[in-house]
Amino acid sequence: MTPEEFRKQAHLFVDWMADYLEGGVEKLPVRSLVKPKEVFAQLPDSPPQEGEPMDLIFKDFKDIVLPGMTHWQHPKYFAYFPANSSYPSLLAEMLTATMGAQCMLWETSPAATEVEEKVMQWLIQMLNLPRDWDGCIQTSASSSTLCAIISAREKYSDYTINQTGVKTNSNLRVYSSFHIHSSIEKAVRIAGMGSDNYVQIEGDSAYAMNPTALEEAIKKDLAAGKKPICVVAAIGTTSSTAVDPIHAIADICHRYGIWLHIDAAYSGTALILPEYRHLIQGIELADSFVFNPHKWMFTNFDCSAYFVKDKHALLRAFTILPEYLKTKTGDSVTNYKDWGVQLGRRFRALKLWFVIRNFGVSGIQAKLRHHMNLAEEVETKINEHPDFEMLAPRLFNLVCFRFAPSDWDEKRINRVNEMMLHEMNESGQLFMTHTILDGKYTLRLVIGQTNVERRHVEEAWTLILETAEKFKQENLG
Ligand SMILES: Cc1ncc(COP(=O)(O)O)c(C=O)c1O
Q1: pTM of the full predicted structure?
Q2: Neighbours of 321 (CB within 10 A)
Q3: Which of ligand 1's atoms lies nearest the C-alpha of 234?
Q4: Domain check: are 17 and 143 in the same one?
Q5: How far is the CA of 422 from the centre of ligand 1 (A)?
Q6: 412 and 338 part of one domain
């Protein structure tokens, strides 16, 4: 491709991107409706021997790829948690891709390191995290949690396990509530401690960890000669955005000398609002914290912000320095390659910097409050409707509910809600997902997409009502 062709195509692409985001996406089914292997079957069996013109490649993108995409930036995307984006973030990604820098060391791009250092400090202020903590960008909450668990493993084994490996029948124990994300157990496995050493603590009626049960489990393990090393508490579980009592848990961890990691992957963004800060009372006793700007802070995937009280524990766990990575500046500067699993790093701080500057803190706060208000409106509608019920307290912008006519039994209610979900998603008009809470099939409506407006939520609610009414009238399920 010549520079002239690049320029021409890039302008066309930007027009396409703007059209897509300005409303084009709303004309597409939210969740892709293709069948398994439908995309695969349309692609040639062998790669082209000769280069193909970009016009043709772009046509195939529109004809083959686009129908196979689920549109996460569709305003009626209400599934899982969002991976939302925004114009400033996209623009930064264009520049990042253009420079194509690999920012593992300060020397491989000093600005990438120093912008990251600065925006991590900004985030600390924005979320009101302890001012003396340090932060870095990781690919995901899963990898941030892995860093926390490996740091705890090293710290409490006096930094010996990296050298000796984890012994068979390790007695190092990690705790969380039953309702926490599966990435915690995955990290325990990868860290070599084994799922048998992962203790899940019962939750209360709001699906938050019971601190008394946590302390009992720790005491029992200590009496049996085991070594509690880490507790992972949640601010916003995946199923229902339940919040564990951070203060009480931090106090226990402090008394027993256990690493406390806080997984706030999605809901952590809410801490930008002062009215949510009470949720992290006691955080100064914690050791690490993760939240994902790539979920709810308008920053393109991937961008996970990981913060630690004692960066030396992290660095001692992860630093390794072969000859070919030695630099003149050495450790007089920050080399983010030592702050996690991967060596190579993208310049992800640029998009965060663009987003925070272009929205401003108040712009981000306004969007978050807008999402909370829309969620509250749906909650009110559910509470006022005789055939619908809320299944978990709504703390942020996730509404957990179901259709439950009073004369239906539990089995039928579960079955019908599942059928309703499939039918609505297959209509292409919205995308929601589910969870199970106390054995109840639960519909999850997450109102966090960057461009979601009241009309989108109202249309979604109308579809939910119509679908439910149809199941009732036609006596389906
Ligand atoms: C509470 C929580 N923790 C961790 C994760 C894992 O996030 P990631 O995809 O960034 O690893 C999720 C994903 O939704 C989550 O909801």
Answers
A1: 0.96
A2: 13
A3: 1
A4: no
A5: 23
A6: no
